[in-house]
Q: What sequence folds into this?
């Protein structure tokens, strides 16, 4: 669950939500910089989908960025051949996956965020 606290020392880092909130609090306290998380493309994991949903709750609380590859239908609408080229397994992209598939989407988001 997303905490009501903004105190870095109060987050349970043994949980996904607590660890994410700790990272955000640490980055804001240490560098006072924008924080952006990105998700994996869609794969067969209901638990990961729940984590993405929770990330949006955290986004509302902390005003962070989310590059959502999980729910991006256009991004996920590729052939099996392209998927085999771009992903080593369901979680880890290949070099081609980073270069040709993930990076353009991440760049577009970051360029908009920073007004480039």
A:
């Amino acid at each position: 669950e997303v905490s009501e606290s903004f105190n870095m020392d109060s987050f349970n880092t043994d949980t996904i939500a607590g660890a994410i909130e700790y990272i955000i609090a640490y980055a804001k306290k240490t560098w006072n910089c924008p924080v952006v998380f990105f998700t994996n493309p869609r794969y067969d994991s209901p638990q990961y989908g729940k984590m993405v949903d929770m990330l949006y709750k955290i986004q509302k609380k902390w005003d962070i960025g989310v590059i959502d590859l999980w729910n991006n239908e256009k991004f996920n609408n590729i052939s099996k051949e392209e998927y085999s080229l771009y992903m080593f397994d369901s979680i880890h992209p290949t070099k081609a996956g980073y270069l040709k598939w993930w990076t353009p989407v991440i760049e577009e988001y970051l360029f908009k965020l920073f007004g480039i």
Q: What stands out?
A: Strands lie at 36-38, 65-67. The two ends are 35 Å apart (CA to CA).
